[in-house]
Amino acid sequence: MAPRNKDRLDQLASMLNEKGVMHLRDAARVLGVSEMTVRRDIANEAGRFAYLGGHIMPAEKVEPEQPYQLASQADRHADAKRAACRYAAGHIHADDTIFVDCGTTLQHLIDLVPQSMPLTVVCYALNIAERLAPEPNKRLILLGGLYHPETASFSGPQGLDTLDRVGINTAFLSAAGLDPARGATCAHFHEVAVKQKAIATAQKNLLVIDNSKLGRVKPAFFADAEVFDVIYTEDGAWFAEEAA
Fold it and tell me: Pick from 212, 227, 183, 150: which is nearest to 52 by CA?
């Protein structure tokens, strides 16, 4: 017989305390009830449980979402972001075609690339494009579409079509959170399709984040940790199996 509502909630809380996160279908199977019943249970306990992308986790594990503004993020953990980018920059070689994600971390990567190095750079954010535009040895491909002022980035089918036609050696990705179970997440859903398309088309995928992002979960999931060949923080490289 399925446990009563209070017993189910207590059992679910106990499982999450042990595992950290559970998929909805796994929780329903263990509890012996339907997925709809579990969804209803946790919806009535928003202060206790959070539900993101098919996964259940303790509510306190998800940070209260604050509006993201590019300018306000530029100086946060800047030294750590720059250090992480120094490690990642070793993967950039003359005549490569690279993809550079949006946000404030990877602008430091662009600053580390010698101006004399010939390079094709695909991006979808103005803060990245503006650093590249004056450099004569850089071929800039700026993906277009709808402009999002909060991140100074673009999204839309035009940009995704362009990514299908470009051969990318290495994609440099950023994230607002990296959780061992939940994977890489960001604050804005419009970034997801671009990130996922770049990951799917690149020969090598690198995630570049600072340590403040570890263990965080943001609303928009875009990749499991295992899809990245290397993950760089200010402490250096660690590999996908270490994040699993």
Answer: 183
User: pTM for this one?
Assistant: 0.72
The reply to whether 44 and 83 lie within a common domain is no
Q: How many domains does the chain have?
A: 2
Residue 226 C-alpha from the chain's centroid: 13
> Which tens digits make up the pLDDT trace of 163-194?
999 999 999 999 999 987 789 999 999 999 99
49 and 92 together in one domain: no
Boundaries of domain holding 51: 5-61
Secondary structure of 7-54 in HEC code, one letter for each residue: HHHHHHHHHHHHHCCEEHHHHHHHHCCCHHHHHHHHHCCCCCEEEECC
Helices 157-165 + 192-201 axis angle, to 10: 10
For the chain, the farthest-separated pair of C-alpha atoms sits apart, in whole angstroms, at 71
pLDDT tens track for 193-230: 999 999 999 999 999 999 889 888 898 999 999 999 99
Cα torsion through 52, 73, 214, 193, rounded to 10: 50
Number of other CB atoms surrounding residue 242 within 10 Å: 10
Note the pLDDT tens digit of each residue in 102-116. Answer: 999 999 999 999 999
